[in-house]
Amino acid sequence: MQACLIESLELAPEVRHFVFEAEGVDRLEFVPGQFVSLSASIGGREITRAYSVASAPGSGNRFELCLNRVPGGIFSGPLFEMKPGDTVQMKPPLGMFVLRQPPRDSLLIATGTGIAPFRSILLASLNDSSAAFTLLFGVRYESHLMYRSEFEAMAVEYPRFRFWPTLSRPEPGWTGRVGHVQSHLTEALGERRDIDVYLCGLKAMVDDVRVILKGMGFDRKQIFYEKYD
């Protein structure tokens, strides 16, 4: 199967939002939170990388990705050079980083482009009668709060959704939360131990938060995670 690039746009420095069409299928079937694998022959080697889908399932064959250009990255460099109409090999969506059914009130914790699967999940799941969600999103700089306006609009429309961005390197004038996501766990959870927690981002954050949650009394069956390195 091939994916054809429809468009891409800059979300933040060295971070782009890509819109692809899966060729050869009328509808791309996937569960929010899953990933697609893209492949290409680079330097005589077949290189494959997995990327979380950042869009909700729809009636067609389009899907969206949120990718950062890795310095010296073998695969991300060529992806960032793609033009509309260019194609790349892909495999159908896979992955188990999806909401437990039926969904329970949940804390979603993302860093960097780990926001991608949570955008998919929230676009597909959030409504007036859905479970309650808190999205705790950590980045270094305000300029890297990808999809910020979308999440802020969701928080206005749905009282059961809270969007909590936090910056580890805030610039003067930032009045929101500061520090790493770990420092906001107690506030986000309160006294509740009956909710699910989903983690997506770099290994160090995921591992650290899992240790903290277990120390707070969370069962491992309540903690779901996907590491990006």
Topology of helices and strands:
Blueprint: E1 2-12, E2 15-22, E3 35-42, E4 45-52, E5 62-68, H1 76-80, E6 87-94, E7 106-111, H2 116-125, E8 133-139, H3 148-157, E9 161-167, E10 177-178, H4 185-189, E11 196-201, H5 203-215, E12 223-227
Parallel strand pairs: 7-8, 7-11, 8-9, 9-10, 11-12
Antiparallel strand pairs: 1-2, 1-6, 2-5, 3-4, 3-6
How would you describe this protein?
This protein has 229 residues and is an alpha/beta fold. It has 2 domains: 2-94, Elongation Factor Tu (Ef-tu), domain 3 (Beta Barrel), CATH 2.40.30; 106-227, Rossmann fold (3-Layer(aba) Sandwich). The protein is 19% helix and 36% strand. It contains 5 helices and 12 strands. A 6-stranded antiparallel β-sheet has the order 4-3-6-1-2-5, with no helix packed on it. It has a 6-stranded parallel β-sheet with strand order 10-9-8-7-11-12, with helices on both faces. It starts with a strand and ends with a strand.
Keywords:
Elongation Factor Tu (Ef-tu), domain 3; Rossmann fold; 6-stranded antiparallel β-sheet; 229 residues; alpha/beta; 19% helix; 6-stranded parallel β-sheet
Compact description:
This protein has 229 residues and is α/β, with parallel strands linked by helices. It contains five helices and twelve strands.
Beta strands, count: 12
Q: Which regions have little confidence, pLDDT < 50, spanning 5+ residues?
A: none
CATH level 1 class label of the largest domain: Alpha Beta
Q: Number of DSSP helices?
A: 5
Radius of gyration: 18 Å
Question: Which secondary-structure class do the elements indicate?
Answer: alpha/beta
CATH architecture of the largest domain: 3-Layer(aba) Sandwich
Spatial order of the strands forming the largest sheet:
4-3-6-1-2-5
Query: Percent range for helical residues?
Result: 10-25%
The amount of beta strand, in percent, is 35-45%
Q: CATH superfamily of the largest domain, please?
A: Nucleotide-binding domain of ferredoxin-NADP reductase (FNR) module
What's the number of structural domains?
2
Distance between the termini: 26 Å
Shape: globular
- Give the integer mean of the pLDDT values: 95
